Amino acid sequence: MKQSLIIATAGHTDHGKTQLIQAITGVNTDRLPEEQKRGITIDLGYAYKTFQNGNTIGFIDVPGHRQFIKNMLAGLAGIDTALLVVAANDGLMPQTLEHISILNLLGFKKCLVAITKIDLVEKNQTSTVTKKIKTLLSNTSMSDADLFQLSSKSGEGLEKLVDALSTLTEKQHKKEICGNFRIPIDRVFSKKGEGLIVTGTVFSGIIKTGENLYVYPTQKKVKIRQIHTQNKSSNIGLTGQRCAINITGKNANISEVRRGNWLVEQKIAFETDRIDAHIRVLDQKQFNFKKQISVHLYLGTSHSLGRAYMIDKNKNPDNEYQYIRLKLQKPIFCVSGDPFILQDKSASYIVGGGKVLDPLAQDFKLKVAHITYLKTLRLENHLDAFLNLLKISKNGLSLCKFRSMRNLKKEEANLLLGKIQARSEKIIIFQDKIEETIFTQKNWNLFLELMLQKIEIRHQQSPLEIGISKSTLKRVFQNELSDGVIEKAIKILISQGRLIGKNSLYHLPSHKIKLSKQEKKLWINVKNLLEMPGTVPSIGAIAKDLKIEIKELQILLKKINKGGSLIAITERRFITQRSFAHYVSVIKELSEKSPDGQFNAIMFKDKAKVGRNFTIELLEFLDRNKITLRIGDYRELVASKNLLKLMINGVP
Length: 652
Hints:
With 652 residues, the chain is an alpha+beta fold. 35% of the residues lie in helices and 27% in strands. Helix 17 crosses helix 20 and helix 18 packs across helix 19. The N and C termini lie far apart (79 Å).
């Protein structure tokens, strides 16, 4: 099967990168008039070489001048093989050193070194430069790089490099095709008769002609009309391939699509302005992350401004990497594992480079827990990361969030679950409308205990509240849990007798609304007045009758109301649950006896034997709570049968 490979150049300006590619491919990658006029590469250039074995190499020629470092970094997006070019007459120059640092920070392992312009120097000079490069690369990820001495002008030594490139394509292993499709856009142009074309190197996934994609960050939908991979027409585009994609649709506008954008599947589409990452810093003394520093972030083909600071300010977690948080001025698109480079505020120096760990950075109360979480995210194997995250996720692990962070398709995440279950791991899965939350059995038991503790704390903070609602419980857990998890926990705790639920409020069996002896005595007198037939006195009338201050009565009624034994019809009038049940039963009887199911205020007043003011206040209360519906001067009972039964029979 024919193989293909993408290689990006690197090296100081005027060291012959463009000339070397032209000698290999016959293509001058300096396509801009200004580049040809000035004789330097400004933007990215592209060329392809097909070998006798049928395999193809695509070259991305990057600028060597430090003024265009932004373009150089965009050219490295999605690439893992480099062709470092060093001129024998100049040797190691500032941009040579910077480019080597960048390749090392990005984790490049496959690298070929071309020592060019050997026709301009003596052999001992070429040997000296060769030794210096070998020494420099020995302490990097590219220590195994092969070196070639050549002249692009005379052709001396060129054949050996070409043969090595051909052999490299044969040894090239196909990248695993997994995850949702993502491609960072590095070039946008229009072609007559075809429309808008975007190019880039595919980060992950697979696409086919006719499919829909989304441009991020604009989130606009486009359709794939044509695909070119490795400079040839194709029906599909795969991970690791160089693709030119002809997109169509009303949103395919060259004024809105630009370098730095992404083409992605909708399933993984999200943006973030807070990222947790690990980074290697080039100069620890010069760049101290213990204080926030302004940085330039280069990720994919995008460039963003932001601030960075160390998450653990006390020590370097593992002597090599630092865990940092990036706060960006504008949201960007990324997933866990994406490599990046940081520059200083003035964009003069490379600060360091690393990989995104958590693109949905969350806050932790304990630094130790935060560092443990990030160390787990550094595990490249999805199964290992998933298992370890399960163990440390006390509130359960959201499968949806894990899929988003790691850019997994739904079927890929389900396969992970299957592998975990095949290992006889004891896990509990809660399926909700939107997501699945997964607990280990141990963490689920701990979670139930934690929920009881949270409820007990709430009782202590709000002793007058009879219980806590599901929505409040969710807020207590910072909305990290789905409704399905909360409901399941409540159901289990109730079945175990460790929680009591009433009127959608939940409390511990030990929790009671406590009244003092004086309050209990006063409540008996108030209750007798409230349940006296034919009258429902206001709090003013009750206070006057019992010869007490209204404020004292209000404090008592507030306690009783919190306990659920009273209902506030208005701010000035309360009735007991027993009285309320009686009045609802009166309305139910009136409705059942009426031919059209309707009744009016006079009918209720006469049947219940109460005053006009209370009648109006009660009926308006029932209207507000959608128990009755007012139609002109009449009302209709609209509450469900179950609710009516609860209101009439559910009296404490």
